[in-house]
Amino acid sequence: MDPILQQSYAFDNKEAELELGCIGTLIYNSTGTVVAGLSVSAPIERRRDDRNPKLISAADKISARLGYKSSYRK
Q1: What distance in Å separates the CA atoms of residue 30 and residue 22, rounded to the nearest whole number?
Q2: What is the CATH code of the structural domain delimited by 3-67?
Q3: Where are the alpha helices (DSSP H) in the chain?
């Protein structure tokens, strides 16, 4: 399985914009299909890994409202 799918999030480390970092995760629908992404961007020096669980939790809540069940994850 893809390591990013296993950890549920990915980073953008100044790839798109100098001095800007992003944390992103996926949103799933009722069939387990990825339908969107959720991300937070900030100056790279302010990005903190301890916020990852909050972002993942928010995406999980949105996915659940779309009918996604965690048992769909491969």
Answers
A1: 27
A2: 3.30.450.40
A3: 3-7, 52-65
